[in-house]
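Workshop exercise sheet. Pairs work together: one partner reads the sequence aloud, the other fills in the structure field after running the prediction. Swap roles for the next sheet.
Pair: D.N. / O.F.
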Amino acid sequence: MTDSDAAPQERDPSPSPVEADERRSRSWRLWGSCLLALVLGFALTSAFVMQAFLIPSGSMENTLHVGDRVVVNKLAYRFGDIERGDIVVFDGTGSFVHGTSEPGPVVRAARSVGAYLGLASSGDTDYIKRVIGIGGDRVVCCDDAGRLTVNGEPVHEPYLHPGDEPSGVGFDVEVPSGRLWVLGDHRSDSSDSRDHLGSPGGGMVPEERVIGRAEAVVWPPSRTGGLRQADG
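Structure field:
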């Protein structure tokens, strides 16, 4: 048998328009499923594990600057207690903010996405401050040397904004169990527990309102790094 007698090789027929449409449809469904999985993964992570928070003000300078993005560990207090010196993000509803309705889960998720992208802070009622007193503490400012004291012991505060004193106003408070006394590091430019002494709750933040502990600055690149939690 000569080469000319050989049967022509079979070729895969070109897909019909219907088959081509089905392949494109399967491809789009695959990409759609991947995108949905990513969105769900982010939502679950933001809701239960880690959340980004955009610093909206200078109340924590020089530790945190306006525009910094920090990562908040939402599991930190599932396995440990809140400690003096921790930098925490909390919902100020009922302690710093009164008479406002709480946002639903969809609104909170949208705010989380906005904060993650650097487009907005997490919410109008969310704050970031440093824990100075925990349940059972007596926090006083100031002693004869101008220092803040907790249970009679002076607090070393190397994080204070340069030129700031521990407090421009005096106070003597006892922190109830399950509550926190929080202050900003930039004491002269911070609205914190001191400003709510006469409000319901006396400026004390309920522990259940704590969203999580700020662990690190992740943006901008020039300021990335972990946040050392100072001892109170």
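Discussion prompt: DSSP finds two helices and twelve strands in the chain. What would you look at next?
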